Q: What sequence folds into this?
């Protein structure tokens, strides 16, 4: 995506994220992801800038498929619930030990007919207090990134692998993620998004059953087992706050997500300010 195709608000968001705009050089438009994934070389660090990264997939890493304990039985027992019923089930849930320490459940927010679904690992302290995912500084950064990609927070659906806060912000245990999986699967089924953005290692691990680093999972299009929905893996905004030099890579991930969901030449650039 070249500078000239960004709206003023998107440029402002990128500026707020400290992501420099890439000034287009004389080379062809990016190929669709599916084609680029097979053939394009790694763009190299000098081209891994913010606004128009190569959509080329990284070389396919060796992946270790893992089983998430507790996941499969709950998939089999997936509740056939509408949104209201599902929300009620979650708010009273005691299926795993995390219920004991929660202030409130964090069900998920946003557009229930969204093209984009953003999934993180679980509520932190502020999310537990407010009952909403991705609030605070990390949430603001996520909002800016999504807005820059033409997907304001109100247009996407945001959820988590687990709906209750793990103590001391530790990672959810596999059995906790497994216990909560049926709720998330039903949310995905109800939203039926065009793309899922898996934010952080824990989210990607649980969605894809791949035990690998974010750096090795990002840069290509995954398919979520059982649904076939395309999944893009990216860094958690809390990590980006600590490691801002990775923001351009996160921006590449969002550009790839947009290409997959909307095609290379359509989408937010034509929508004007969000
Ligand atoms: Fe229930 Fe999920 Fe909360 Fe565990 S994390 S108690 S499974 S809603």
A:
């Amino acid at each position: 995506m070249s500078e000239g195709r960004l709206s003023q608000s998107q440029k402002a968001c990128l500026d707020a994220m400290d992501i420099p705009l890439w000034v287009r050089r004389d080379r062809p438009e990016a190929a669709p992801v599916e084609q680029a994934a097979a053939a394009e070389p790694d763009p190299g660090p000098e081209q891994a800038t913010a606004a128009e990264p190569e959509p080329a997939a990284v070389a396919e890493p060796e992946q270790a498929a893992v089983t998430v304990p507790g996941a499969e039985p709950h998939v089999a027992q997936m509740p056939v619930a509408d949104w209201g019923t599902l929300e009620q089930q979650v708010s009273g849930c005691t299926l795993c030990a995390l219920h004991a320490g929660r202030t409130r459940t964090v069900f998920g927010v946003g557009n229930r007919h969204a093209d984009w679904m953003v999934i993180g690992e679980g509520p932190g302290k502020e999310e537990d207090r407010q009952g909403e995912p991705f609030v605070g500084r990390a949430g603001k950064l996520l909002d800016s990134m999504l807005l820059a990609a033409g997907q304001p927070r109100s247009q996407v659906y945001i959820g988590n692998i687990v709906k209750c806060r793990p103590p001391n912000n530790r990672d959810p245990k596999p059995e906790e993620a497994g216990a909560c999986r049926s709720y998330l699967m039903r949310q995905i089924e109800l939203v039926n998004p065009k793309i899922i953005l898996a934010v952080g290692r824990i989210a990607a691990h649980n969605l894809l059953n791949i035990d690998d680093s974010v750096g090795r999972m990002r840069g290509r299009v995954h398919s979520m087992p059982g649904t076939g929905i395309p999944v893009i893996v990216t860094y958690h905004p809390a990590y980006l706050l600590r490691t801002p030099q990775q923001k351009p890579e996160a921006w590449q991930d969002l550009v790839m997500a947009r290409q997959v969901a909307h095609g290379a030449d359509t989408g937010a650039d034509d929508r004007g300010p969000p």
Summary: The longest strand covers residues 116-120. The longest helix spans residues 174-191. The pocket of iron/sulfur cluster is lined by residues 90, 93-96, 98-99, 105, 162-164, 176, 179-180 (CB under 6 Å). The chain has eleven helices and six strands.
